[in-house]
Amino acid sequence: xxxxxxxxxxxxxxxxxxxxxxxxxxxxxxxxxxxxxxxxxxxxxxxxxxxxxxxxxxxxxxxxxxxxxxxxxxxxxxxxxxxxxxxxxxxxxxxxxxxxxxxxxxxxxxxxxxxxxxxxxxxxxxxxxxxxxxxxxxxxxxxxxxxxxxxxxxxxxxxxxxxxxxxxxxxxxxxxxxxxxxxxxxxxxxxxxxxxxxxxxxxxxxxxxxxxxxxxxxxxxxxxxxxxx
Length: 229
Ligand SMILES: Cc1cc2nc3c(=O)[nH]c(=O)nc-3n(C[C@H](O)[C@H](O)[C@H](O)COP(=O)(O)OP(=O)(O)OC[C@H]3O[C@@H](n4cnc5c(N)ncnc54)[C@H](O)[C@@H]3O)c2cc1C
Hints:
The chain is an alpha/beta fold. It is built from five helices and twelve strands. Strands 4-3-6-1-2-5 form a six-stranded antiparallel beta sheet.
């Protein structure tokens, strides 16, 4: 398949929101939480990278949220694309999706790891008032709180959703939570052991959170994770 870049806009320091349109299919169906695989010839060799959809399905369109990795190969290439450019892709892929039967869920993200959660929550919250959802979103600085207004709006509209942003390097005027996501996880969980915990971000964070949950009695089936590296 081929995806055409329709729009690109900056949403944070070195982070952009991309809108693509699938070219050779009448629609692009996926389950929120899934990702696409892009391939391009860079420096003489084909490079493939995965990117999670950041919004629910919408006809032939899909949206991504990308971090420019300064020393990276593929992300700088994508940041240099212009509307109208086309990219080879496959997908959708992945099983980082809400499981059936659905359980109350704690979602833990750092950085662009929040992308699949935006798609999952935008899709799920309006049609599911029977379950509780919490998003613990960790970044360094306040400007890095990607889609902050969207999550705050979701929390206003849906009392069964809590949004807990936390900053590891807050400015002096930040009134919210401080520190890493790990420091707030068990406050969100409380005494519950019947919730699913979804974790998305870089390996270091995911590999730190999983054993903490296991040590607190969580079964591995309740810990669903996606590592970006
Ligand atoms: C299932 C899956 C879904 C993904 N979804 C997204 C997504 O929605 N948005 C996104 O930005 N990335 C996502 N990634 C990461 C993405 O595939 C690339 O690894 C990333 O864009 C870096 O590629 P690169 O070629 O520029 O860097 P490379 O040349 O591959 O350099 C890799 C370096 O970049 C670091 N790195 C990888 N991803 C990130 C990141 N997101 N932020 C900071 N450092 C990173 C690695 O730790 C490593 O040090 C996803 C990865 C997987 C496996």
